[in-house]
Amino acid sequence: MTQRNIEVVAAKRRSIENIPVEIVERKGIGHPDSLCDAIAERISVEYSCWCQDNLGVLLHHNFDKVQLVAGEVDIDYGRAQMLTPIRIQIAGRATPLCQGKKVPIDDVAIQAAKLQIRESMKYLDPDRHMVIDSYAGRGAEELQHVVAHVTANDTSFGVSYWPRSALEEVVFKVAEYINRTLITELPVGEDIKVMGLRRNNALTLTIALPFMALQIRDAASYQQLKKDAAAAIHAYAQSLDERQVNIMINTADNLDQNAVYLTLTGTSAEMGDDGAVGRGNRVNGVIAPFRSTSLEAACGKNPISHVGKIYNVMALLASQDIIRRVPTVREVTVYLLSQIGSLLDQPLVATALIHPTNGSLTSSIIDDVRAVLDENLAQADTIQSRMLNREMTLF
Amino acid sequence: MTQRNIEVVAAKRRSIENIPVEIVERKGIGHPDSLCDAIAERISVEYSCWCQDNLGVLLHHNFDKVQLVAGEVDIDYGRAQMLTPIRIQIAGRATPLCQGKKVPIDDVAIQAAKLQIRESMKYLDPDRHMVIDSYAGRGAEELQHVVAHVTANDTSFGVSYWPRSALEEVVFKVAEYINRTLITELPVGEDIKVMGLRRNNALTLTIALPFMALQIRDAASYQQLKKDAAAAIHAYAQSLDERQVNIMINTADNLDQNAVYLTLTGTSAEMGDDGAVGRGNRVNGVIAPFRSTSLEAACGKNPISHVGKIYNVMALLASQDIIRRVPTVREVTVYLLSQIGSLLDQPLVATALIHPTNGSLTSSIIDDVRAVLDENLAQADTIQSRMLNREMTLF
Amino acid sequence: MTQRNIEVVAAKRRSIENIPVEIVERKGIGHPDSLCDAIAERISVEYSCWCQDNLGVLLHHNFDKVQLVAGEVDIDYGRAQMLTPIRIQIAGRATPLCQGKKVPIDDVAIQAAKLQIRESMKYLDPDRHMVIDSYAGRGAEELQHVVAHVTANDTSFGVSYWPRSALEEVVFKVAEYINRTLITELPVGEDIKVMGLRRNNALTLTIALPFMALQIRDAASYQQLKKDAAAAIHAYAQSLDERQVNIMINTADNLDQNAVYLTLTGTSAEMGDDGAVGRGNRVNGVIAPFRSTSLEAACGKNPISHVGKIYNVMALLASQDIIRRVPTVREVTVYLLSQIGSLLDQPLVATALIHPTNGSLTSSIIDDVRAVLDENLAQADTIQSRMLNREMTLF
Amino acid sequence: MTQRNIEVVAAKRRSIENIPVEIVERKGIGHPDSLCDAIAERISVEYSCWCQDNLGVLLHHNFDKVQLVAGEVDIDYGRAQMLTPIRIQIAGRATPLCQGKKVPIDDVAIQAAKLQIRESMKYLDPDRHMVIDSYAGRGAEELQHVVAHVTANDTSFGVSYWPRSALEEVVFKVAEYINRTLITELPVGEDIKVMGLRRNNALTLTIALPFMALQIRDAASYQQLKKDAAAAIHAYAQSLDERQVNIMINTADNLDQNAVYLTLTGTSAEMGDDGAVGRGNRVNGVIAPFRSTSLEAACGKNPISHVGKIYNVMALLASQDIIRRVPTVREVTVYLLSQIGSLLDQPLVATALIHPTNGSLTSSIIDDVRAVLDENLAQADTIQSRMLNREMTLF
Fold it and tell me: Is the pTM of this model over 0.80?
């Protein structure tokens, strides 16, 4: 076994917490881009499971192109009527025939998309509000084979870091709180966007929050609900951070012009907001422009051989593992660079940038980090099964 | 006039040239993602021009969702037959009615897409090889108005830097050389990908390069052409950098299995590679994962009010201007952060991270950079006309 | 009130029963063409009901273009897998805006199509096996108004006759027997075609009959089921006619080559048979090439003003009424010709061709027939409500 | 050689000329239904030619489902703007793979459709005004084989007659005159409908005639052009028949409300009129409801084995041949009924209904007609090549 090319170095950059201004965003699970991410990834999972169950092998595929075309609604307080459905256009490449068996690409893709919506959205009904069609086709000839041992055929790149900054933590958790808890308490939908700004030792969360038109009878109720939502979110957010947290909801509202954020289905996809894969949250759940980040759209890519997907996920998992197991590390960023022709567990270089908890980077810390990173690389193949078991969210 | 909130600070991070490993990628103009970027941006331009010509105003719009569904070809040396067309699915939001006049959204979008392909691709024919359809619709009600003075209604973010690193420069120029010059000399197409790796003081360019099936009669010719192309590219690339430059073309080729990169149209979109907007090059023309970067898809967004688009472009232009006009600056990265409710030329904060040419950051350099940055912000509105005149490429 | 222009004349032609050879066909309710007819008509009904409920008026519309694109299945005894869904492409014209209210054309059309499939098909599931999308749009400007009093703006034509010939009766009833009764007793689907031939005083019914793959384990079972089905159908058919009735089922079967008529959903739309409106049964439920017939596609057209639809239905209803109420008439064919600019109850000419029960046409018969026909014309407007209440099947 | 089962009998029915009222319709070549017919048939022809050229055989196919979804225009005198393109949805079944060669079904279909529009329409541009896509797929397994000797696998039916009635002749020739000649003289389009009514010894032609908006500056010009057109058509029509011919053009026009028949492309498909195959003219070029007719959509079906298509064409050709070669026959209607399992030239029964020129049907006439009909049946296979050479129009 070749020794892996691992570098552990001290981060030169300021810790994110020491930058005077920070912005972080999370698109909620009902945002049109998140819906596309979720559908793309679910198709990859269901396609892989179909292949395992029916063929005993995994097949190459790539479903990282899904486009959402917004619908149209006629909406007002207490009233909502779908005019035009939301359209989901699934592109993607897969293997139509294997071992003499036909592979139901389109059927798997469409059913996976519906399943995903059904399981994740409270009000949006894939059969009632959406038209989901598949334009998937075969890939280039050379990609249609069963995978035996996987080597990188491209120079690709993954990066992630851990832990989240305080602002990232607040933004992520507040979005999850609204999507998981508040939705059971107030008539709100899942298509939220939480934009966090840290400045002058205060946090401001600007939140787009859809309300359910059928459960709100007039402007007064809407305003009251906005206040209730703001209060609940504020209480929750303030419990996460000692600094002052300001909550601003639906700042573009203009009640006089009846411009408010009402929905029938809980997502702006019903009226005017299109979506696509890879345009939303990164694999760690946020968009953090001041952080090292990858442009790679992880969702929908195959978890067997797509370096871009696997290395981004592996960088996140390794970062988390380092923080968990090396208490002397306060902050870590992991970069993984693939090497053409080598196995995935043998990157060209794996770099960990470290902010130690105290003082400077010691050789003991370096050894500890190297060991954890090496171990994570060695277990590259467990990532695949974790993705197929849907143990992790990639957006 | 309020003074702008401009910060000029010394970069803590190592210069990109001092990082031991660097990777940079550029997708050529025929890559499926680049085709989508190009189409999306062209639609925005043509739609804006239509509105100016016919209504005398610009209208809100957003065409940053375009999906390419790959076609299918039957191909071999000397022979190529389109089986299934490439499909372009244009999503997007625009204003269907203004001042009592109907706005031909679908027609403008489809014709703009065809025009873009016709002008940029040598072999790909939008009428012969593609089916281009528009699924564009109206936006949410509040976005359908004419724009008077534009304030940011979101906290958004733009970042760019200048100059390119040496590797970025080589990757960018080599891709452009192939797309503009080599294509006139050898039977190659536009869907190239140049992946550059700098390591151990050498540059390696791994290049995917499509050859035109109809002009190549057999495997021997193909191999010869690959050699010719490699030689030409090597000569050009080596002229750009003193270090050793290695050229590797179509590394996945397997001539025994007839797995070679032949195309009918010059792009893999004809067979198995889908595309989408915002998934390729950034506004400065490359994908540079070790650099500060924005996830924002600039192409297709309206150049009037979309902060994400405008601030990314402005950050690039300001960086270039600083390098051009402040010789004491060797490297600059500009961050622009919008402020809800403020005009675009009044960002919440504009930050320039500086690597001075020599020594440390002096107050004189700070003043010079601040002045240039301030001037660039003041001319925010010229960016719009530069985009509408197609004076800049955003991908 | 102008007297109506009614002609009652003796039929010169032989009665259909006296022609030596007769062929008659009925496509079952699961035939792709019948599915399109059924969907088109249901959309017209649901759209009309929506308008009545929400606007208090009926609006012009025309949904007589619906196309079914066949899916693909992988099928064998005991096993069936959808590969590609059946696609329904709804075209059509309607009114998007009335009295300031938006009319949900696409939503009504898609939901109506699903409702129709759900109510009429035992195995075919619109959400599981089909992708139903609407491409409906506005009509030409002049058609977008509410209808007050309706005059024909075209010279159009309707024709029908009554009673059915003996062969027509057998074909119609056998098809209905299979679609309503046999389907509850044997594992068969709805996409049948019954082709009847009368010759040499015998009737031969050649029947295409789909069997449900999941309920049939092998070729032997299939053959046994075919025999069972043939026996049941023969018993039923023979009870309808004294002459010898021969039953031939799935004559194209080739068991050696595994070419048998197995389905997952009960319709060949799942694999290889497309469908369209107006290509199947006439309003009296059969295709009888030796009879006077109209090419008009009645299904999906608006029941308010579309002369072609209304006059075909009216000709059938009037024929039935004449036979019911004038016992001296054995056979009647009614032709109705519209008059540009006149109300629907004032045709240019209404002709009844009569075969009297005995002997020749008397003035008493003529008077009786004229009275019934006149009465039917006077009640033209009841036809609309009968169609909207779905009291009659048009295919 | 078995003797063919040919019956020659005297027609009992009145000659069409003796019926007091007659209506006949022809949809011009630019009518949405005619466009679909033309496209469907052209696809069949081009697909067949591709197979002959590349495989040396003909393959089973069926392209008789093509749907046109109307576009949208913004139009007025002197001004016309496409808003939404006309969409052509090609369904159909064909063979994707033969002799190891891939068959470019979609590409052939789309290019054939464009070729047809380009060759037949003066203003309508398939690339500028239309989006043409193919949804064609494989047929059921048993239909995917090469055809050797063709036997009918269904009881099917063809019927036609000759000569045209006087009214049919006027309607047909006037429509052709407008589509071929008048279009070169006046700014008119191809989407015409000529509805002819014979009554009281006069002919009335009610004609829908599209005018080209860009060539007409105002209502006065429009009215003048209508008068010019009416005069030219009247002169031509009157030259065809001695009886009085009345011409009525665009009777639904309402100049006060600006409701006139203006087009950009020459067809109402641009705004509000959908189309489908098999919904327009019969194989003899007209819709004649008082005549024996077939519901079969001939266009797009394969000319190798589809009995419905071949027998309708053969009935027309045989009728024409009988009239040409048997001067003692004034009028003939030919019915052809296929026989399951027999070759196409061996129908179950071929019937010719005869109106002799003078007096009653003699055995000499019977023999002559039988001989011509027999000869036509014997040459069944020449029909195929005539269709593939596009020597006949089927609509």
Answer: yes
